[in-house]
Design a protein that fits this description.
By secondary structure, the protein is mainly α. The chain has helices at about 10-15, 20-30, 30-35, 45-55, 60-65, and strands at about 10, 40-45. It has one domain (about 10-65). The longest helix is centred in the C-terminal third of the chain and has 11 residues, at about 45-55.
Length: about 60
């Protein structure tokens, strides 16, 4: 897990994974039930943690260590 998990938008998370927002949304679709609905445009810290568990850690986060 990254050292600091914070609420993030889909665009921020897509940027971390190095993909477009549409690609990121396609990746999330099979896991939507586990992730749940966003609050406005923001994924909560718990949702971001679930995304990291389902998709793996973003490459940027892993190379920061």
């Amino acid at each position: 897990m990254p050292n600091e998990i914070k609420p993030s938008t889909g665009a921020e998370l897509a940027r971390l994974y190095g993909v477009s927002k549409s690609t990121f949304n396609k990746w999330l679709k099979p896991h939507q039930a586990a992730i749940g609905a966003r609050i406005g445009h923001i994924y909560t810290t718990l949702q971001v943690k679930i995304i990291f568990e389902k998709l793996g850690l973003p490459l940027e986060e892993m190379t920061d260590r």
